[in-house]
Design a protein that fits this description.
There is one protein chain. This protein is an alpha/beta fold. The protein contains eleven helices and ten strands. The protein has two domains: about 10-90, Winged helix-like DNA-binding domain superfamily/Winged helix DNA-binding domain (Arc Repressor Mutant, subunit A, Orthogonal Bundle), CATH 1.10.10; about 95-294, D-Maltodextrin-Binding Protein, domain 2 (3-Layer(aba) Sandwich), CATH 3.40.190. Helix 1 (about 10-20) crosses helix 4.
Length: about 290
C-alpha cells in the first residue's frame, strides 16, 4: 500500500510556520533560511493540492484548510518531539560500563560511591564480561579491560601497568613460612584461574623467576574473584594484579610472601568509542582517569 504521508521536512516547516504565523520566525526556530521554509510549504501545498496560507500583510494567515490541517498534525508532532526529548534525556544521563568481574569487584565498586556522590543524576549500568572479544557484539559506552595491545577500533587510555605477584592470607603464610622462598613456593597449593583469556598465569610467573615449573598441588577456579576469595580463606596462594588487590594488601587481609613480581608491557585500559560522547559519559571517563591518579 502506497504511503500517503507528506514529506516530513515540509510537515515540520508547516507546523512551525503555522504556530508562529511567520516564515521568518519559523526559519529562525529551525535554523534554516526563510526561502527554505517557503519552498517546503510550497512542496506541501502541491502534495495536498490545497493552499495552506493566505499571504496577506501585515501577518501571515492560515486558510480554513490550513487551520484544520495544523490542528490535526500539531499534537502528533508535539508527542513525537516529547518522546524524542525523553529518550535523549535518558540516554544523556545513563551510561553502560562493561568490565571484567575482577575489575568490577576489586577496583570499580569499592570506589563507585564517590562517583555517585559527585554525580547523583547519572545512572551507571555495570555489566561484567570477562572476554574483551565480546565487546564488538555489545552496546556500551565505556569499557575497563586488560589488554596486551591497545585495541585499534576504540579510543584506549592506559590506566595501570601490569605487575603480577603471589599473595596469600597471613594465616597461610604463618602455616607455610617456606613460601617466602620462591623456589619453595612452587610446592605450595596454588590457586589457579581457568580462563580462555590470554592472561598471565603461574607458568608465566615461574618462568620469569627462572624457577622450575610447580607440581600438581592446585585448586582450579573459573572466576578471578573466586581465586582471591580462596586466598582470603587461607586455601592457597594466588597470583594477584597489583591494582586489583591494593586494598587487601593495605588492610593486611592479604600479604605478598615474596617480592618477586612479573611486570609486562600489558596495561589496563579505559576503552571508549571514537564517536562523540554525551556529557554523562565524559564525566564518567574523566572520573575514572582521575581515580587512577589518586
Amino acid at each position: 500500500m502506497k504511503s500517503s504521508l507528506p514529506p516530513l521536512n515540509s510537515l515540520v516547516a508547516f507546523e512551525a510556520a503555522a504556530r508562529r504565523l511567520s516564515f521568518t520566525k519559523a526559519a529562525d526556530e529551525l535554523g534554516v533560511s526563510q526561502g527554505a521554509i517557503s519552498r517546503q510549504i510550497k512542496i506541501l501545498e502541491e502534495t495536498l493540492g490545497s493552499r495552506l496560507f493566505r499571504r496577506t500583510k501585515p501577518q501571515l494567515a492560515l486558510t480554513k484548510t490550513g487551520q484544520g490541517y495544523y490542528e490535526a498534525i500539531s499534537l502528533p508532532l508535539a508527542r513525537i518531539a516529547d518522546a524524542t526529548t525523553a529518550i535523549k534525556d535518558n540516554s544523556q544521563g545513563s551510561i553502560t560500563l562493561v568490565t571484567t568481574n575482577a575489575m568490577a569487584a576489586f577496583w570499580l565498586l569499592p570506589r563507585y560511591s564517590r562517583f555517585q556522590a559527585d554525580h547523583p543524576e547519572i545512572e551507571v549500568n555495570i555489566i561484567a564480561v570477562d572476554s574483551i572479544a565480546q565487546l564488538d557484539q555489545m552496546e556500551f559506552d565505556l569499557g575497563l579491560y586488560y589488554c596486551k595491545e591497545s585495541p585499534e577500533h576504540y579510543r584506549a587510555t592506559p590506566l595501570f601497568e601490569e605487575r603480577v605477584f603471589p599473595v596469600c592470607s597471613p594465616n597461610y603464610l604463618t602455616s607455610h613460612p617456606e613460601i617466602e622462598d620462591p623456589e619453595l613456593l612452587a610446592r605450595s597449593t596454588r590457586l589457579v584461574l581457568d580462563s580462555a583469556e590470554d592472561w598471565i598465569d603461574w607458568h608465566d610467573w615461574f618462568d620469569s623467576a627462572a624457577i622450575e615449573q610447580p607440581g600438581d598441588h592446585k585448586i582450579v577456579l573459573n572466576s578471578y574473584p573466586l581465586v582471591i576469595q580462596a586466598a582470603l580463606n587461607g586455601q592457597g596462594v594466588a597470583l594477584a594484579w597489583e591494582t586489583l588487590v591494593d586494598d587487601y594488601l593495605d588492610s593486611g587481609l592479604l600479604v605478598a610472601p615474596t617480592h618477586n613480581a612479573l611486570a609486562t608491557q600489558s596495561r589496563f585500559y579505559l576503552l571508549e568509542h571514537k564517536r562523540g560522547q554525551s556529557p554523562a559519559v565524559s564525566a564518567m571517563s574523566h572520573w575514572l582517569q582521575k581515580e587512577t591518579e589518586a
